[in-house]
């Protein structure tokens, strides 16, 4: 088995005295694990940073064997870890991805989206410029894994107009008329999740994150994967502080 690809580092785990087992997201071959000899060395620690973009070369004698991985840094996101909020965002995005995606299955849209969100975190001076993209990434991940939300028409009437809420049970949009009297049981639906474009205010961002968080916790982050929700809680807490 041989894979050579540009990849996003997702997780790094110490292995043995000097090595590390690294999982990285490639465009066509999905999450790929590999053993990096000397991965805990002073030279490689800055390279093997979650969020970093690397050129990886995986080699193994068989598909069942853990591949030997060599990496070359393409783009470092390490400076982002000097600030608490960007660090929390990258910690959550990479932890979510590695906890939910099966290894060896390609998700090119997720690879492109994850790289774009991290680039936005790097470029935007304020969290409001990228926090909505975190919700969009979570929404895309749900869809790619078979738990997509139906936000383009009312789950009750089939109409595409006046969509204002999301059902926490079905994951479908609900129009304002169909929701009358039941609003408190539904999630408000931010317009940017339906119409595209940027999220222009914090209430819309937190409404979007409430929707995606509910379905991630219900449908994907169960069992041991639920441990990653602590990283999401830290990110939400820091976003709430930034919004104040």
Short description:
This protein is α+β, with helices and mostly antiparallel strands. The protein is built from 6 helices and 9 strands. The strands form 2 sheets. The protein has a 5-stranded antiparallel β-sheet with strand order 3-2-1-4-5.
Label this structure with key terms.
244 residues, alpha+beta, 5-stranded antiparallel beta sheet, 4-stranded mixed beta sheet, 6 helices, 9 strands
How would you characterize the overall build of this protein?
The protein is α+β, with helices and mostly antiparallel strands. Helix content is 35%, strand content 24%. The chain contains six helices and nine strands. The protein has helices spanning 84-100, 108-123, 131-144, 191-195, 202-220, 229-243, and strands at 2-15, 19-26, 30-36, 53-59, 68-75, 150-154, 163-166, 172-175, 187-188. The strands form two sheets. A five-stranded antiparallel sheet has the order 3-2-1-4-5. The protein has a four-stranded mixed sheet with strand order 6-8-7-9. A hairpin with a 3-residue loop joins β1 (2-15) and β2. α1 packs antiparallel against α6 and α2 packs antiparallel against α3 (131-144). The longest helix is centred in the last third of the chain and has 19 residues, at 202-220. The radius of gyration is 19 Å and the shape is elongated.
Unreliable parts: none
Approximately what portion of the residues adopt beta-strand conformation?
Answer: 15-25%
Strand numbers in spatial order across the main sheet: 3-2-1-4-5
Note the gap between the termini.
51 Å
Shape: elongated
SS summary, helix count: 6
Radius of gyration: 19 Å
Elements, N to C (H/E): EEEEEHHHEEEEHHH
Overall helicity = 25-40%
Give a count of the beta strands, DSSP E runs of length 2 or more.
9
The largest pleated sheet is described as: 5 strands, antiparallel
By secondary-structure content and strand pairing, the structural class works out as alpha+beta
The average pLDDT value, as a whole number, equals 94
**Multimeric organization:** single chain
């Amino acid at each position: 088995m041989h894979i050579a690809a540009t990849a996003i580092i997702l997780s790094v785990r110490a292995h043995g005295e000097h090595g590390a087992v690294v999982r990285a997201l490639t465009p066509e071959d999905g999450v790929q694990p590999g053993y990096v000899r000397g991965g805990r060395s002073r030279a490689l620690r800055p390279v093997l940073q979650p969020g970093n973009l690397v050129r990886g070369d995986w080699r193994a004698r068989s598909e069942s064997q853990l591949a030997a991985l060599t990496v070359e840094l393409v783009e470092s996101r390490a400076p982002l870890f000097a600030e608490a909020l960007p660090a929390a965002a990258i910690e959550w995005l990479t932890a979510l991805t590695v906890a939910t995606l099966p290894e060896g299955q390609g998700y090119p849209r997720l690879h492109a989206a994850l790289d774009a969100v991290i680039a936005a975190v790097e470029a935007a001076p304020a969290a409001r410029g990228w926090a909505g993209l975190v919700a969009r990434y979570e929404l895309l991940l749900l869809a790619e894994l078979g738990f997509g939300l139906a936000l383009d028409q009312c789950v009750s009437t089939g109409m595409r107009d006046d969509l204002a809420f999301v059902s926490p049970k079905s994951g479908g949009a609900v129009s304002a008329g169909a929701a009358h009297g039941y609003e408190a049981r539904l999630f408000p639906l931010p317009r940017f999740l339906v119409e595209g474009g940027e999220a222009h205010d914090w209430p819309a961002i937190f409404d979007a994150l409430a929707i995606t968080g509910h379905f991630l916790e219900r449908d994907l982050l169960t069992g041991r994967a639920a441990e990653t929700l602590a990283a999401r809680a830290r990110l939400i807490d820091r976003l709430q502080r930034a919004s104040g």
